[in-house]
Structure formats: C-alpha cells, structure tokens
Amino acid sequence: MPGRPNLGRLTAEDLTALRAEPRATAVLNFWFGEKWETEGLPNPTERLGVWYGKSDALDSSIRQSFGGDLDRLLEGRLDGWRSSLLPAVAGIILGDQFTRNARRGTASMYDADAKTLEWTHALIADGSIARLPYALRHFAAMPLMHSESLADQELILELLKRWHGELSSQGGDDEVVEFVQTAIPYAEGHVDVVRRWGRFPHRNAILGRPSTQEEEAGLRDGSIAAW
C-alpha cells in the first residue's frame, strides 16, 4: 500500500475482495478515513476522536449510517464477510466498535461480542491478522480486550507487546509505536480486573447481573476500573 510505512502486507486481491463488499468498504472508510487505501493509513492521533470519542453526534452518525448493517451482522446475513480478510475486519469493527456507539448505555451494545470474538480468533489462528497494517490489526484484535475470558485478556496483552516490539525494531511510525505502547497498560488493567473478578463488574448493572458486595464497594470507590 502507498503512503506511510505501516508494516502491512495486503495484496491486490485483498483490496479487490473488499471493494466487492460496498458496506464493508463503508465501515473501513468511516473508521480509517476514505483515503486510507490510496494515501495510506493516518497516524492514530488523527483518528482518536472517532475511535475513542464519546459524543451523541458520533453515536447518532454511526446509528444512522450503520444501524441496518448491525442488524444484518447479528442476524448472520454478513457471515460471508468472514471468508475475506478485509471484509472480516470490517465485520469485527462493525460488531465490536460500532455496536458500542450505536447502542451505548444498553445491554444490546454487547450483543455482537461472541460473534466478533470468534472472527478475531479465526484471523489469529490462520495468521492473516499479521498481514494487516497496524491500525486495522489493532481493531481486528480488540474483541479480545472486550472479552471476559482471562485467556483472551492474556492473549491481547501478549499480542500488543509482540507488535510493539516488531514496530519498534522494524521502523514503524513513531506515533504508531506510541499508540501501541499506550495500549499496553490498558490491556494490563483489563487482565488484572478479569483475573481478580472473573468478569468486568462495571457491566453488571447494564446486563442485569447481581454484583457482590466487594464489587459494589470497588465500583463505588473506583478501585475497580471501568471502561
């Protein structure tokens, strides 16, 4: 791909498969900017407002533009995206990221987690996740960080540390290296919470799960992190 070095190894066939799925293309263009294919991926700081911003305007935009796609994903009508690398990444972002925006504050924001986690594990198992430019790889792996499985939490931490080492030693953009480095403490925090509590206690209320007295105390005093 032209543009800034990103250590990705996408092929022309990968991009052709993406263009055959217009809605998958729309997901990636929204998340990474419409020129990411031709001009290279932006540095992470240029997209932080989209990736991590919390605003009614952003949530509404995602809900209006991609609400129908979310329904189709959950109904299994986008399962064909799994057979190609970039559409699979688009499906993961749709179910893992867009769902949290479009359905923020409701239990249904987690409805696609099992599906996206399965897709992520498939990309890791066949090695194709390593062919992605880093920003795409990062979000393809994020269902692991949202999982309440300790094995998944330990895996994402391992991957982030490995990728940080690779990017540092192979000439990745400084801002990309810093972005990965910043993600590692967040991953460590997730590991700590799941190891201690076996779940994310801050989800209990929205999911209708009873909290233990210890969890309630930790959530009140902030000793249990919430994301």
UniProtKB/TrEMBL annotation:
<dbReference type="InterPro" id="IPR010323">
    <property type="entry name" value="DUF924"/>
</dbReference>
<protein>
    <recommendedName>
        <fullName>DUF924 domain-containing protein</fullName>
    </recommendedName>
</protein>
<dbReference type="Pfam" id="PF06041">
    <property type="entry name" value="DUF924"/>
</dbReference>
<feature type="region of interest" description="Disordered">
    <location>
        <begin position="208"/>
        <end position="227"/>
    </location>
</feature>
<dbReference type="InterPro" id="IPR011990">
    <property type="entry name" value="TPR-like_helical_dom_sf"/>
</dbReference>
